[in-house]
Amino acid sequence: MAITKKDVEHVARLARLALSEEEKERYTQQLGTILTYIEKMSALDTKNVPPTSHVLPLSNVWREDKMEASTSATLGSPEEILANAPEHEGPLFKVNKVIE
Amino acid sequence: MSFTSLTASEIAAKVRSKEMKAEAVATAYLDRIKVLDPKIKAFNEVFAERAIAQAKAVDVRIEKGDASGALVGVPIAIKDNMLIRGEHCTCSSKILEGFVGTYDATVIRKLRAAGAVFLGRTNLDEFAMGSSTENSAFHTTRNPWDTTRIPGGSSGGSAASVAARMAPLALGSDTGGSIRQPAALCGILGFKPTYGRVSRFGLIAFASSLDQIGPFATTAKDAALLLQVIAGQDDRDSTSVNQSVPDYVTGLEKSLKGLRIGLPKEYFISGTDPEIDKAVREAIKVLESFGATTREISLPNTDHCLSVYYILAPSEASSNLSRFDGVRYGRRAKDVENLLELYEKSRGEGFGPEVKRRIMIGTYALSSGYYDAYYAKAQKVRTLVKQDFDKAFKEVDVIATPTSPSPAFKIGEKSSDPLQMYLSDIFTISCNLAGLPGLSLPCGFTKAKLPIGLQLLGRPFEEGTLLSAAHHYEQAQSWNKEAPKIAL
């Protein structure tokens, strides 16, 4: 599979990754090599094969819809969680202006 | 006898009977880390005084008459991708700079309750993506058997810490071989349990349908003890399975008489180092001497496992790692104009080359127009791989293979060619695709004194069979008792 620099730029945008010119060149070459290797499997006949997204035959897990005592002990307090944020204001994560 | 030559089971027994203080054990290991780790670099951080405080608390508890817990006073090293409340967690990535865990992973909570003492966080390939720890943003861990070589990966720090006897036990995570391959390359036992056996809550996700946490140890008994503590269904991980957890330690003695071992012809290939092939075949003979029988089997879709893995794992990773965007935690790029730029620059600066490469592969495979050819196709081939194993396990109870086609390679040897690096996982990936338990145990050395690993795969939730095979093997051979020169 030939990958072009344009493909790489498109995928990088989808993945929200800023790449340098040098990285774009490198990934164009490397992704091409890796995808060519991977394409070996396209020769397999899988017409009647169901997909496996997960190995376990799991179904949804239900529980009573009642509140637990506190999530602070299991997930951390709001203060602890906010302390990890690069920027926050009061109880909110702060980012650049979203709407022009 | 020094503390650091004891097994975890021995330490727990001696601390429980007050023959030894947990504090003295922790101090002995921390002293050893201080001397050895500058040469090995297994740890990203050593908890030093926090470990001592934890050990002292265990001693106080025992003094008060409560000696419960399977791992009382046993020091353990933790791969730096599992959350410990109040401790940094980095996944060996710059993007998690400064991040502090706000809760305990389920495995950590269980270890605390069992009386274990956390020694520190161990190095890994960034976000567990790699086979050598060379993808760590911080440093490359050295193989204790030859410090010019890699320890394997991604859980290379955990494997090296146990191999160098800087910890009697460690936890790793295994997505495509990240416990078993470094265990083999470092000459210790590494065990990936069945998918769903151990809760993943608090493990920073790489590929959610493949990831599983498991033990590193020097004996099967220690691995059994640790697995016993961490196994079991957990309400906080919907993919953990409600299956009763047997008594693994008692199960070790179960006879191997009549155990049917399958040798898949696709795993005994000319590309494997001849010294490894020989050691593995001899190890299988040892299992036969305990009454096991062997037969050749075939897993016809083996050739496609690597392709399936390098579509599915990066696809899942590209989705999982979207959360690292510079908003809620970790590194944020400076001087950005708008939100899109904040995302792109924070991620561009924060992720290393291999992580970006996998995010790119995964995003490509999931993108419009390519989804059917790559992602959907790989999911179907995954079914074929699983069917191969289902069929094989009708005829045999255990499958034996080499863990790695080659011994530990030199630092830098494969880092410029990603595809060559990916090929080092060729024997370990199928186990994750099929969700099976897989164990690697030391079964000899090359002439250059590099460790060799035997891989045993079992039916889902039959961890006990693999542990008992490893335990019997240890009774006949002493490879697991050999420590690298640097650690003597």
Average of per-residue pLDDT values of chain B: 96
Distance between the termini of chain B: 12 Å
Stretches with pLDDT under 50, minimum 5 residues of chain A = none
Going across the major beta sheet of chain B, what is the strand order? 1-3-2-4-6-5-10-11-9-7-8
Measured by DSSP, the beta-strand proportion of chain A falls in: under 5%
N-to-C SSE series of chain B?
HHEHEHEHEHEEHHEHEHHHHEHHEEH
Morphology call of chain A: flat
- Give the overall pLDDT of chain A as a whole number: 89
Give the spatial strand order of the biggest sheet of chain A: 1-2
Question: How large, in whole angstroms, is the Cα Rg of chain A?
Answer: 23 Å
Helix content of chain A: 25-40%
Query: Percent of residues of chain B in beta strands?
Result: 5-15%
Low-confidence stretches of chain B: none
Helix/strand class of chain A: mainly alpha
Number of strands of chain B: 11
CATH class of the domain at 3-255 and 463-479 in chain B: Alpha Beta
User: Which structural class should the secondary elements of chain B be placed in?
Assistant: alpha/beta
CATH superfamily of the domain at 3-255 and 463-479 in chain B: Amidase signature (AS) domain
What pair of chains forms the biggest interface? A-B, 57 and 75 residues
Structure write-up:
The complex is a heterodimer of chains A (100) and B (488). By secondary structure, chain A is mainly α. Chain A has a domain at 5-43: Histone, subunit A (Orthogonal Bundle), CATH 1.10.20. Helix content of chain A is 38%, strand content 4%. Chain A has helices spanning 5-14, 21-38, 72-75, 78-83; strands at residues 88-89, 92-93. In chain A, helix 1 (5-14) crosses helix 2 (21-38). The mean pLDDT of chain A is 89. Chain B is an alpha/beta fold. Chain B has a domain at 3-255 and 463-479: Amidase signature (AS) domain (Amidase signature (AS) enzymes). Helices cover 39% and strands 13% of the residues of chain B. Chain B has 16 helices and eleven strands. Chain B has helices at 8-16, 22-40, 48-63, 106-113, 156-163, 180-186, 220-230, 248-251, 274-289, 305-320, 339-350, 353-366, 372-395, 418-423, 429-434, 463-476, and strands at 43-46, 75-79, 117-122, 169-174, 189-192, 212-217, 260-264, 293-297, 398-402, 438-445, 451-458. An eleven-stranded mixed beta sheet of chain B has the order 1-3-2-4-6-5-10-11-9-7-8, with helices on both faces. At the A-B interface, helix 1, helix 2, helix 3 and helix 4 of A face helix 10, helix 11, helix 12, helix 13 and helix 14 of B.
